[in-house]
Amino acid sequence: MADNNQIQGEGNYDAARRYRKEQEAFAKTGPVEQKAKEAEQALDGPEGEELERARRETGAKGAE
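^ thats the sequence. predicted structure below, dont judge the formating
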């Protein structure tokens, strides 16, 4: 009898595949420029300091 849990160990490969596919579709057809402008405005706005702190804490790389 097959187990329907879909336990995949340390990673969910199906979810990763779906995520990657959706990201590629967004990059090709989504409002990339609009989202980039929104992100820039957020960084320059009142939440900018909090966003920068979160970026540093997570070790995320960004334009510096």
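The mean pLDDT is 85.
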